[in-house]
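Tokens help. Our protein:
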Amino acid sequence: MKNILFLLFILGSSIYESKAQVKESYKAQIAYKIVETSPRCKQLTKGLYERIVKNGGTSYGIMLESSPNPKTDPSQEYSKTYNFNLHESYSDRMPVIARFVFDPKKQQLYEDDVVNAQLVAIPFNKKLLLLFNKK
């Protein structure tokens, strides 16, 4: 009986956990691909993992900060654009090293130049727009 109750508890916990994990929308998934596969992002991340680990960190990541669909995407707030950050991960901090913006209306990827307070259009795989505009 204890084994059955334990099994039901584990099963219930895993079901709850899977419901708690939010998966981003199809469009947000493609926007991630647009950023991740851009030459600029590849340039910034080349050898980055090794440098972070050497400095005591664990990894790096790209996070969606805001989107046109914050309720369906795991983003913090609403924006007309998909706004991402590229960050390093350490036990006590997550410094942002670059910000990217994908504008779905203009169909353009930008790097946010925070020093000059402007968005700079950057190249990306335009074939991904076919997937983005599919749904």
